[in-house]
Amino acid sequence: MIDILAYLPFKRKQTPSGWISFNAVCCAHNGEKTDKRQRGGIKFADDGWSYHCFNCGYKSSFVPGRQLSYKTKKLLSWLGVPDQEIEKINLESLKFKSINGLITDRTRLLNELGDVSFNEFNDLPPHAELITPDHTTHWQYLRSRLVPEDFPTLSVIHNDGVHWTRPHVIVPFTYDGTMVGWTVRFLDNKSPKYINHTQPGYVFGTDLQRSEWQHIIVVEGIFDALSIDGLAVMHNTISDKQARLIRNLGKNITVVPDQDYAGMDLVDRAIELGWAVSIPDWEDDVKDVNDAVVKYGRLTTLLTIMQARETSKIKIQLRKRNLVKRL
Q: What is the pTM of this model?
């Protein structure tokens, strides 16, 4: 912004500590005798500088992004910097502040969002096959959950009698078209119902989203997400990494919790994140999005979700309270 060295007295020296010493230009203006012992000093740091007179004690400084102080303007004037140049320096400094502020805000935002990536994961169970109508039990289960027929699901059909003996379906986890994990849903009534192989921060359903969509719907379960092309966090909370991934999609976010006590934790987390929440007035036997799609159909379910969408913290808490009373 200014090469202040060009305005310093020609006779000067630099000390080991970094100060450039010269005859101070301030003393005669502050009731002191003209300095002839090089007691004025300037030191550069962080693109700016500090001035100190070891005779009359005059101090001033300059930092890009700050408005020039009265004392700094005076010092520049005593050094012979023209008034127009001083005002130009002031304007350039304020401009620097504006640009640097934008860069700082952008950097902060990028750090907040974080870099989202996952390792490729192709370690499927042995002998896993794509489920087709020929696999009657598995196919009927998927149709009962209204999983789209073109969504690839698998199962280990030919087990060895030791591993994977329980009937099940395997849902692959993908991100940007790459498989990064999977989950197994067992079809009997035994525990556990699910076995997950997932990576921290993963959100199911990102590859289901379309660029032209303005809204995304965040749910708990995978089958909830599959039935409406939503996102599934796969538990009743949202981790910080998952929140960053969801924000990165750049769309309006609506969280739809399961309508049970555990789902209320997801409501609290959504409020904390500042996201919209939808708690539709579904019938008592409808506990989640997939239940709603099975009972009402996909279009009606989506309409009820958007109609019940709330952004007000007070209104969300009121809907939450009303639902808890019904449970």
A: 0.65
